[in-house]
Design brief:
alpha/beta; Aspartate Aminotransferase, domain 2; Aspartate Aminotransferase, domain 1; Ribosomal Protein S5, domain 2; 3 domains; 4-stranded antiparallel sheet; 17 helices; 21 strands; elongated
Length: about 550
C-alpha cells in the first residue's frame, strides 16, 4: 500500500520551503554569512538544525526504528496533530472519527482546519468502540484518532484492535501514545512496517518528565515522514531544546516509570476506600479517572487545601469525575489527607442531618421507665432520676464521660427491693443504646480502659451484636449508698444482654466507691470510643459485611 494516496493533492504538489542550511551540502565552513543571522555571538545567534538530523538518529535508536520514520515537532504532540489535519483532510469536506471522551486537541485542531469531527461513545468501562468507529466511516472519513492509553479515561487499546482498524479502514489510523510508557501494551511503532496507514504519536512530556520543553514525535512510513518534514514550518525546534533532548535521551527513565505505576495501583486502592469515591476506573496511564459524589465541591475543597486536580465533570461521558495525576508518594499522601478532611466534613454534616436518638418506654408491674438518648447530644443536658441516689450518681457518669445526652426517669417498687429498678433500667438502657445506633454503619465498635484514683477499672466492649459478659470485680461492702453491691454485676450483665454486646469488666482497688465509680466511668469511655463515628467511612465495622 502506498500511503501517499491519502495525502491531499495540493500537499503532494507542494514545493517545501528551503532554508539556507538545506542548500548547504557539507564542507569545512568557518564563516557563516548565508542566513542573514547576527554575526555577534550570544550563544543563540545561529539558526538550529531545521531537519533535526542528530536528534532523529538518537530517537530512532531509543525507539527501535529508523531515522527516516521520525518526525520531531514542537508543542509536544500537538504540532503533529495539526499537521495530520493539514496533510490528509480537505477543509469543509472531510471528516475524522474519535472516541468520546478523548484528548481535546483533536477536536480543537479539527475546528481550526474546518474538518468535521465525529464522536463515538465508548463501551462500558471506557473501552475503545472498534465496531462503532468502523460503522461511522463514510467516503469522506480520512483519519481515525486512537488515544492509547486514552486521556482522560486511562484505558489502553489492545494492538489487535489497532490492527483491525488499520486493516478495515482505507485511511489514516493516528495512534496517540503519549502515555504508552505506563501501559501494559508495547508501542505499535513496529506495526507501521506492515500497516503504512498507521501514524504513531509520542511525547517527551510524560514519562520523560520534559513537559516544559514541549517536544513531540511522530513515527510513520518514510514517505509520510517526508511529507511531515515538507509541511512543517522551518526551524520548529530551537537549538537549546534539541541539545537538552539529546542529553536527556541518555537517561534511564525506567525507575521513574515503575514508581509511577506502583503509586498508581496503591493510590487506586486507597481512593476506593473513601465514601465520597464511587468508582476508580482502571488506568494504564499516569493518572486515574475517579467518579465522586460531588465533583465540583470536592474539587473546590482540594484547591482550598493546595491540591490541584482536573475536574472532568463537563466532559462527555465523564459526569461527576476528577482526573488525578499520579504524583510522588509525598504528593499522593497530601491528596489523601485532603480527601480525608473532605470526607470528614461530609460525615459531620451527615451526622448533623441524621440524629442518632431513641426513646424507650418500659412499663411492668414493678417499674415504669422512660429513657431518651441522643448519641450526638449535649451531655450536660442529661437528667437522671431512678429514686436511688447512689445509682443516679453512677448512671450520671455514662453521659458525662460517654459524650452523649441521656435522660432516665424510673419509678420502681423500691418499697419491695432495689432489684427491679436496677435490672429494668439496665434492660431499657441497652434497648435505647441499640436503637440509637441503628445499623451501626461507620461506628468504631470497640474500646477502653480507665484508672480511678487508687483503683483501676478496665472495660472492654464490642458492639458487634454477639452477647458475652465477664465480671472480675470484688466489692467488699454489702451496700454502696442505697444500692446493694450484688446488683452491679447483674446490672451490667442485663445491659450487655439488652445491648447485644460483648462486655468484659475487671476492676480492683481499696475503696469500693472508687472501684464501682471507675467501672461506670470506664464503661462510659468504652461506649464513647465504640459509638464514635469514623469520619472516613460509612461501612459496617465488620469484615463479614454484617453485624
Amino acid at each position: 500500500m502506498n500511503p501517499l494516496k491519502y495525502v491531499r493533492p495540493n500537499i503532494l504538489a507542494l514545493s517545501p520551503y528551503s532554508t539556507a542550511r538545506d542548500e548547504f551540502k557539507g564542507g569545512d565552513i568557518s564563516v557563516f554569512i548565508d542566513a542573514n543571522e547576527s554575526p555577534f555571538h550570544t550563544g543563540f545567534n545561529r539558526y538550529p538544525d531545521p531537519r533535526h538530523h542528530e536528534l532523529k538518529q538518537r530517537v530512532a535508536a531509543v525507539k527501535g526504528t529508523t531515522a527516516d520514520t521520525v518526525f520531531i515537532g514542537g508543542a509536544g504532540s500537538d504540532e503533529a496533530i495539526d499537521l495530520i489535519y493539514r496533510i490528509f483532510c480537505r477543509p469543509a469536506t472531510d471528516n475524522v472519527i474519535a472516541m468520546s471522551p478523548t484528548y481535546g486537541v483533536y477536536s480543537v485542531a479539527a475546528a481550526i482546519n474546518d474538518v468535521e469531527y465525529r464522536e463515538v461513545a465508548p463501551t462500558d468501562g471506557y473501552a475503545f468502540p472498534v465496531e462503532a468507529v468502523l460503522a461511522a466511516i463514510d467516503s469522506h472519513t480520512k483519519v481515525i484518532w486512537v488515544c492509547s492509553p486514552n486521556n482522560p479515561t486511562g484505558l489502553a487499546v489492545p494492538p489487535a484492535d489497532i490492527m483491525r482498524l488499520a486493516d478495515s479502514f482505507d485511511g489514516i489510523v493516528a495512534v496517540d501514545e503519549a502515555y504508552v510508557d505506563f501501559s501494559p501494551y508495547p508501542s505499535v511503532i513496529p506495526l507501521i512496517a506492515s500497516h503504512p496507514n498507521i501514524i504513531v504519536l509520542q511525547t517527551f512530556s510524560k514519562a520523560w518528565g520534559l513537559a516544559n520543553l514541549r517536544v513531540g514525535m511522530a513515527f510513520s512510513d518514510p514517505r509520510i515522514a517526508t511529507i511531515f518534514a515538507n509541511v512543517k514550518y522551518p526551524y520548529n525546534l530551537n537549538g537549546p531544546t534539541q541539545r537538552e533532548i539529546l542529553r536527556q535521551l541518555s537517561r534511564d527513565i525506567t525507575p521513574q516509570v515503575e514508581m509511577i505505576k506502583s503509586e498508581r495501583e496503591r493510590l487506586a486502592a486507597e481512593l476506593a476506600k473513601y465514601p465520597c469515591v464511587e468508582r476508580v476506573y482502571h488506568s494504564d496511564a499516569n493518572f486515574l479517572l475517579v467518579k465522586v459524589d460531588d465533583a465540583g465541591r470536592l474539587y473546590d475543597s482540594l484547591v482550598a487545601k493546595g491540591v490541584l486536580v482536573r475536574n472532568r465533570t463537563r466532559v462527555a461521558h465523564c459526569a461527576g469525575t476528577l482526573r488525578i495525576t499520579i504524583g510522588t508518594p509525598a504528593e499522593n499522601r497530601r491528596l489523601l489527607e485532603a480527601l480525608a478532611d473532605y470526607c470528614g466534613m461530609l460525615r459531620q454534616e451527615s451526622q448533623a442531618l441524621t440524629p442518632r436518638t431513641a426513646t424507650i418506654e418500659r412499663h411492668t408491674s414493678e417499674t415504669d421507665i422512660r429513657i431518651h438518648i441522643d448519641l450526638d447530644g449535649d451531655p450536660s443536658a442529661s437528667v437522671i432520676d431512678t429514686g436511688l441516689k447512689f445509682f443516679d450518681h453512677m448512671l450520671s457518669q455514662l453521659p458525662h464521660h460517654g459524650g452523649f445526652a441521656l435522660d432516665i426517669l424510673c419509678r420502681g417498687d423500691l418499697e419491695v427491693d432495689e432489684h427491679h429498678t436496677m435490672e429494668d433500667v439496665a434492660i431499657a438502657l441497652g434497648d435505647a443504646l441499640r436503637s440509637a445506633l441503628g445499623d451501626k454503619r461507620g461506628i468504631e465498635r470497640y474500646g477502653f480502659v480507665l484508672p480511678m484514683d487508687e483503683s483501676r477499672a478496665m472495660v472492654l466492649i464490642d458492639l458487634g451484636g454477639r452477647i458475652d459478659f465477664k465480671w472480675d470485680v470484688t466489692l467488699d461492702r454489702e451496700y454502696l449508698g442505697d444500692t446493694p453491691t450484688e446488683m452491679y454485676p447483674h446490672f451490667f450483665q442485663s445491659l450487655a444482654s439488652s445491648l447485644r454486646a460483648n462486655l468484659h469488666i475487671s476492676a480492683g482497688g481499696d475503696n469500693c466507691h472508687h472501684i464501682i465509680e471507675g467501672v461506670f466511668k470506664a464503661t462510659a469511655r468504652a461506649l464513647r470510643a465504640a459509638i464514635r463515628r469514623d469520619p472516613f467511612t460509612h461501612s459496617l465495622p465488620s469484615s463479614k459485611g454484617i453485624i
